[in-house]
Design brief:
The protein is an all-alpha fold. The chain has 11 helices and 2 strands, in the order βαβαααααααααα. The chain has 3 domains: about 1-105, no CATH class; about 110-160; about 165-229, Homeodomain-like (Arc Repressor Mutant, subunit A, Orthogonal Bundle). Keywords: DNA-binding, Transcription, Transcription regulation.
C-alpha cells in the first residue's frame, strides 16, 4: 500500500502492515498492546470488547479527532521528551474511542461531569504529586471511574483534559517558585515534574511567552527588565 503525506492507517491486532512511503516523508507510529488495554476497553464498553472492526483496518482513512490527538501527542513528545504516563494513556483513550466509533462499535455515552467529591480528590492528588509522573489510571481510581470515562468527565467539569490541567498547575507552581525563591531553574524543573531545565523552558515559554530566566528577572526588577528589553 502506498501512503501519501498525512494519511492515517490502522493495522489489525496481531497482523503486520506493509506500506511504501516517499523517503522525504517521516513516518510516526503508535502501538496499543491489546493485553494492556483490554480491561479498560471492556469497562468502557460495558462488556467484553472485540477488536473485530474489519472495515477500518489496512486502508487509509481520515479523522479530525485522531489528527488533533496525534498532533498534540507528537508536539508534547517533542517538547517534553518521553511522554508522561498521563499524556500517553489519555491520548490512547481518545484515539481508541474514535477508532471504535468509526468502526461501528462506539462506547457507552457518558453524561455530566465529575461529582464534586471526585473533582476535589483528583485535584488534591495533582497538587500533592506535582513532581511525579502521575498516571491517568491513578486519577481515574480517585474518581472511581474507568480511564475512558474519567477523561471525558474531567474535561466537562474543568474545561480541559487532565494532561492540560496538570501542565497549567506545573507552570503556575514554577512561576511561584521563580518569584519567591532563589532555587536554580534545574531544581524548579524537578520540583514541578520536568526532567530538566530545558524541558521546563520549552513548556514555560509556550505558556508564558517568556523564558523562566527572563520571567524571574521581570518580576524581581521590572523597571530594569523593561529598559533592557
Amino acid at each position: 500500500m502506498a501512503n501519501q503525506k498525512g494519511d492515517l492507517t490502522v493495522a489489525a491486532p496481531n497482523f503486520a502492515l506493509a506500506s511504501t512511503v516517499d523517503t522525504s516523508q517521516q513516518v510516526r507510529a503508535l502501538a496499543f498492546p491489546v493485553a494492556q488495554w483490554q480491561e479498560t476497553l471492556d469497562d468502557a464498553a460495558s462488556g467484553r470488547f472485540s477488536f473485530d472492526l474489519p472495515h477500518i483496518y489496512g486502508g487509509k482513512f481520515d479523522s479530525p479527532a485522531i489528527r488533533s490527538a496525534l498532533r498534540t501527542l507528537w508536539a508534547l513528545c517533542d517538547e517534553e521528551g518521553a511522554p508522561s504516563r498521563l499524556l500517553a494513556r489519555a491520548a490512547g483513550c481518545e484515539i481508541l474511542a474514535e477508532l471504535c466509533r468509526l468502526g461501528g462499535a462506539p462506547f457507552r455515552q457518558v453524561r455530566g461531569g465529575l461529582a464534586p467529591w471526585a473533582e476535589r480528590r483528583c485535584l488534591d492528588l495533582m497538587h500533592a504529586r506535582l513532581s511525579e509522573d502521575i498516571s491517568l489510571d491513578e486519577l481515574a481510581a480517585e474518581a472511581r471511574l474507568s480511564p475512558f470515562h474519567f477523561v471525558r468527565m474531567f474535561k466537562r467539569s474543568l474545561g480541559v483534559p487532565p494532561r492540560a490541567y496538570l501542565t497549567r498547575l506545573r507552570v503556575e507552581k514554577a512561576s511561584e517558585l521563580l518569584e519567591r525563591t532563589d532555587l536554580p531553574i534545574t531544581e524548579i524543573a524537578l520540583e514541578v515534574g520536568y526532567s530538566s531545565n530545558q524541558v521546563l523552558a520549552r513548556v514555560f515559554t509556550r505558556h508564558m511567552r517568556v523564558t523562566p530566566s527572563d520571567y524571574r528577572r521581570a518580576v524581581r526588577d521590572p523597571v530594569r527588565y523593561v529598559a533592557m528589553s
